[in-house]
Amino acid sequence: MIGKVFVAGFMLVSLSLSSSNTAFAQTAEPLPSFEVASIKPAAPMQPGRMMIGTRGGPGTSDPGQMTFTNNSLRDLIQNAYDVKSYQITGPSWIETERFDILAKVPKNTPKEQAKLMLQSLLADRFKLVLHHSSKELPMYALVVAKNGPKLKEAAPEPAPTPGEDAPGGPGISPGSGRITVGKDGVPQFPHGAPRGAMMMTMGGMNGTMHMGAKAQTMARFAETLNMQVDRPIVDMTGLTGKYDIALEFAPDFGRMQTKMAAMGGGGMMVQGSGGEGPGGGPAASPDGPGAGGPTIFSALQEQLGLKLEPKKGPVDILVIDSANKVPTEN
Question: How many CB atoms lie within 10 A of CB 261?
Fold first, then answer.
């Protein structure tokens, strides 16, 4: 199980294991598993666009099926073990190789067993072996700025109409449809984009980046911001709601290009999730001028009433001992 412990102002995500070099292995009682699962290499992404998502499973409108679209092994480990990207150490291919997975869930499976089933799938099909270790890391804490947050709370999630899917359910491809630009010049989410979707668009090398989010938690938003800076970002805002977010800033293009190239994408990313589901280059500077707008540090404070504060603290790391680049056949 994963527990969150706050120590001296830092968030330590601790895994309930007895030793820092204990490998994750099957216990005497085997993990629950999917009835059947199909794993295929994801189709090549369109130039300048990336779509990543998960949907379905226990607790959703489609409890009998889970779909993972264009997920890397890093994405899948994050989901299965409820950790952040920066907590996973392994070979570079765990981020570049991407897969589409369709898994059938046994009837009446409790929601809390979905992650255990994914852990079982990773061990069985990717032969994944992990151990955990603690590491002291510099980080940023995402906190509320002095004058308070400037966030728009998302509307409550509507109940699904009979005969239709709930947001994020089957029939909705995360980030599907055509992106349009509103009268204010801000890109709009594609039709059918589910709650929890994230969208980032860039207008060119001398332009700004627009980041949008639908019904996003601060924890997920902090994780998305990781692409823009040189260290992990931990949510310490204390805000527990879900928010519709619009943010405009001048990105660190060196960092963004390196990150997107590593992930196989281009200049724009659309990321969606049907439920609650580090890159190189020069680091962004809190004091550095933006190419065509404010830095991410200034934009967060001016537009959202949030702030990134430098911190340092222990972080629990999942270390990949071994994993197959090509999963076993279906």
Answer: 13
